Amino acid sequence: MKKQFYFLIFFTYILAMTSPVQAQQTRLTGTITDPETHQPLVGASVAVKGKITGTVTNGNGKFELSTSVPSTLVISMIGYERQEIYVQSADPLTIGLKETTADLNQVVVSASRIEESSLRTPVTIEKMDARAIQQAPAATMFESLNSLKGVDMVTSGLTLRQVNTRGFNSIGNSRFLQLTDGVDNQSAGLGFPAGSFFGVSDLDVESIELIPGAASALYGPAAFNGLLMTKTKSPFDYQGLIVQQKIGINHVNDPNGGGAKPFSETAIRYAKAFNNRFAFKLNASYIKGTDWYATDYTDIDPNTPSEKRGAANPGKNSLNIYGDEVASTLPGIGRVSRTGYYEKDVTTYDVYSFKANAAVHYRISDKLEAIYQINFNQGTANYTSSSRNMLRDFRFTQQRVELKGANFFVRAYAVAENSQNAYNTRSLGQFINRTWVKDLSGNVVPIGKADATWFERYGAAYNGKINGIAPQNHDVARTFADDGRVLPGTAAFESAKDKYSHLYGLEGAGVLSLCKMYHVEGLYDFTPHFSWLSVQAGGNIRYYDMNTNGTLFDDKINKVRVKEYGAFLQASKTLFEEKLKLMVSGRFDKNQNFAGNFTPRASAVYSPTNNHHIRVSYQTGFRNPTVVDQYIKLNVGPLILLGGAPSNSVGLNAYENSFTAASVGAFGAAFGQETAAGTPFPQAVAKHKDKLVKSNVPYIRPEQLQAFEIGYKGVLNNKLLFDVSYYHGKYTNFLINQVVIRPNTANVVLADGTVNPAAAQEILSTTTRQTFQLYTNAADKVSTNGASGGITALLAKGYRLGANATWAQFNILDANPNNVPAFNTPKWKTNVTFSNARLTDKVGFSIAWHWQDAFQWYGTFTENRPGLVPAYSLIDAQVSYKLPKLKSIVKVGASNLGNNYVVQAFGSPAVGGLYYVSLTFDELLR
């Protein structure tokens, strides 16, 4: 509450200290119509060029606003051509807008951080406006992104989807930046933007822009793989009440049973402006449904030969069963794993997502506007990372204060999360498994002895040491070891589940995070001050304040706080009668733990005519390790996870004084053979100690990318849009983990550089050594190639056809596969859409076909062992019907119409069809 108070003080200060300076004002009035139907256009935007003054037309197509004359009015509306009208008097205006091919030449902002034609952007960009989002055959705005070329969509659950571009995909993708009104959608504790889980109501989205590929030169380290920018609707331009109710079903004919489940979404938006000076808006949406089930029970145990894996394997490790990861090799028996629990027993499939937003806008003058906005998100989602995690009642709050003019903005925002009910389902299964184990006398043992005791019972039963138990039978031995096992649905099971999902660290499976992030940034466009050059400059400061109460970081006493800052400069120039546009930009970023990083970008766009544009660009990108990568200090029993910031390992000697895990394994095996042959202990150590290798693990540093891109965008006969591109990228310094083993007291090498025998002796015992998993980088280099092509055709009678295809190739070169993150993207993927928003004056439709080929998915959930994501094809469709008298639209649609259960990441759930009906009431109280 203190932080919120400071925000309000700052906001009030802005209003109080800024004096409005107004020229002589004239009230302009007019009517906007469709010249073909002569019908008034409701909700058309009327803005004054070069100022922030503007309004929208009312239910009769009329507008009025106060401004100085002469002025230039900019008239725009979704689906109509943008017009500029020079006004010299206060005479009433009558303006007709023509329907447009706006999809073929839209105005975009994110490619260069200034307004420009989408045909002449220096890099590849995709855009969807509010009309396209509304007409998309998708249940949600986020899902509609799946039709854009180059997009990889990964579904962790019903309320959680992630997007990525150009490979190196992961479910928790920290390489891709998501902004909403300029505010980072990243969770500080999770370390990545949580996709559809956080954000604003779909009703408040004005447009989305997507840049595939590096955008670090303008947006900093988080935009390593690309950028998704969402712009919400201004309460000045979009007034009135919108109410939407959506109902549907999923899990139709689900092979896992249970029958169809209901799905619902309720959304509301209200905005009001007063005297074109003050405006506010309120938004809320609530989604509720049954999550998709993760039920892949493939045996992935790495210590069992592939031909012996399966249901009959006593050492099986099933993908979506948790607790069976705990395994041991029993003498004379072989590898045996504990009996685990199905995911459905340790998670919650009743999920929801609540999003609320409020904003106030005050126009201090016709060139200056102040904004305060707060976004609140809370929900439950299943998320796949190194485990399947239940993000239960996860809260995410954003606050923004902004002062903006026609050519600048200053923005400050804070992001806070509250995770006190989330938990790790794999860990939860293991903890429940340790609550009921009995020794051979029938007594329940302490939790710390449970696993060893269970294996002791199993071995005793299998070897015929228990009266009445048939020997040499794995099923019988497992039944005996499982005596007393708490079963799902019982009071004992639910009690254990509740207890250990709320205990943190080594005591339980709970996830505690009260982390925050603060960000201040600004941009100024100097172009109005130059007649021959376009120049923009900007910068930012970011501050992370982490709080996990010692469960993830060593932050009970030593607070984990990270500062970083950056600044960029961009200049562009048009030559040869504006046929050639040259642009260069450079950005410098500094994190307190790393050396400064400079990321340049250079581009050229050649336009021989107004409809044909060829672009080439050189781009660079970098990614700072997340705060978790830098500062995690988590003892997970067998080892300590240790982040790579130098200050995080002070006094532990993990980076400075340790052996590589591989060399310790080789030394241990040779030593064991030697002592088994009768060699005395000291001689065996001395003989094989030189097999030990001192580790040389560098502290963590940013990842790097260099990319070259060439593309063409052209329009033929104002009916066909072509967009093709090719890119080549080179990557270095990939973030990896490396396991090392440190002797507790001795130095690993002597003064002469040889291995210390005392250190070798300590390494042989788990009580005199410590194992660490260090966060570091690999020196290996890899490259990628990719191409995409798309066509949009505006056909007769309002029909529209779009098609695109994307090809991606990963070249590992001479790199060690263990040092490179998984590419995780299909080689080919395609989309085809066919639609007509005005099939009749009341009926519209849209249909989309998606296909992608099979590929191997590598993820931390399976310890980076591959799992097949099969090729799949699916169809989305919707039909809409307008009810003009009720000012409403009925939409009937289906995501995955054929109900094909598809998996988008190995270990994540199979996603089937979602069938829905929505009713939207618009233009109310306008």
TrEMBL record:
Q: Which InterPro entries match?
A: Beta-barrel_TonB, Beta-barrel_TonB_sf, CarboxyPept-like_regulatory, Plug_dom, Plug_dom_sf, TonB-dep_rcpt-like
Q: Which organism is it from?
A: Runella rosea
Q: Where is the signal peptide?
A: 1-23
Q: Which SUPFAM superfamilies match?
A: Carboxypeptidase regulatory domain-like, Porins
- Record-level GO BP terms: siderophore transmembrane transport
- Family to which this protein belongs: Belongs to the TonB-dependent receptor family.
State the superkingdom: Bacteria
* Record carries keyword Transmembrane: yes
The record describes its membrane topology as:
Multi-pass membrane protein
Q: Report the PANTHER family cross-referenced here.
A: HEMOGLOBIN AND HEMOGLOBIN-HAPTOGLOBIN-BINDING PROTEIN 1-RELATED, TONB-DEPENDENT OUTER MEMBRANE RECEPTOR
Q: Where is the TonB-dependent receptor plug domain?
A: 120-226
Where the record annotates domain TonB-dependent receptor-like beta-barrel, the positions are 372-897
Q: Which UniProt keywords apply?
A: Cell outer membrane, Membrane, Receptor, Signal, TonB box, Transmembrane, Transmembrane beta strand, Transport
One GO cellular component, as annotated:
cell outer membrane
Q: What is this protein called?
A: TonB-dependent receptor
In its UniProt record, a GO molecular function of this protein is:
siderophore uptake transmembrane transporter activity
Q: Name one Pfam family in it.
A: Plug
Localization (cell): Cell outer membrane
